[in-house]
């Protein structure tokens, strides 16, 4: 007689809680996403914003994403998910949508960097905008990695 194997639900890996969040891919990407996104926000805020419409969107995306990712990280650390599969869907949708928004912000920040090359205080603003562009694209890459790596768990 064949033994009855575990159900499909029990073969799914458990969602991490507590410090295990920092050791489990893709959830380990949340802290670097927050840190790199914070650098985007700080660097753009340190420049003299010459294009408020462009860099306003960058600030909005970076600050909002940092706050929501921080709330998501806290919810994983405190175990609010209770190992529900709906959290994987929520996590994937959030990180996928945020990756798209961050890509738009990174492209706008790169445009602001190009425009700041010939402005007043050009060397300092150009360097700050260049660093902000780098961290914006890096953060975009982290969000993309997070969104896609949920499927390969």
Give an account of the 3D structure:
The chain is built from 5 helices and no strands. The chain is elongated. The protein has one domain (21-152). It has helices at 8-11, 30-46, 52-78, 85-115, 122-149. By secondary structure, it is mainly alpha-helical. 32% of the residues are buried.
Core attributes:
membrane, MARVEL-CKLF_proteins, about 70% helix, structural constituent of myelin sheath, mainly alpha
Secondary-structure map:
Layout: H1 8-11, H2 30-46, H3 52-78, H4 85-115, H5 122-149
Helix pairs in contact: 2-3, 2-5, 3-4, 4-5
Organism: Urocynchramus pylzowi
Membrane topology: Multi-pass membrane protein
Transmembrane segments: 27-51, 57-80, 92-112, 132-152
């Amino acid at each position: 007689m064949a033994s009855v194997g575990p159900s499909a639900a029990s073969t799914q890996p458990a969602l991490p809680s507590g410090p295990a969040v920092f050791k489990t891919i893709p959830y380990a990407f949340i802290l670097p996403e927050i840190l790199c996104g914070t650098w985007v926000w700080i660097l753009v805020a340190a420049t003299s914003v010459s294009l408020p419409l462009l860099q306003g969107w960058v600030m909005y995306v970076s600050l909002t994403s940092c706050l929501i990712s921080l709330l998501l990280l806290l919810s994983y650390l405190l175990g609010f998910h209770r190992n529900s599969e709906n959290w994987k869907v929520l996590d994937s949708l959030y990180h996928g949508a945020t990756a798209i928004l961050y890509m738009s912000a990174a492209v706008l920040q790169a445009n602001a960097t190009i425009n700041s090359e010939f402005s007043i205080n050009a060397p300092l603003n150009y360097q700050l905008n260049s660093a902000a562009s780098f961290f914006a694209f890096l953060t975009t890459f982290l969000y993309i990695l997070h969104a896609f790596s949920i499927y390969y768990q």
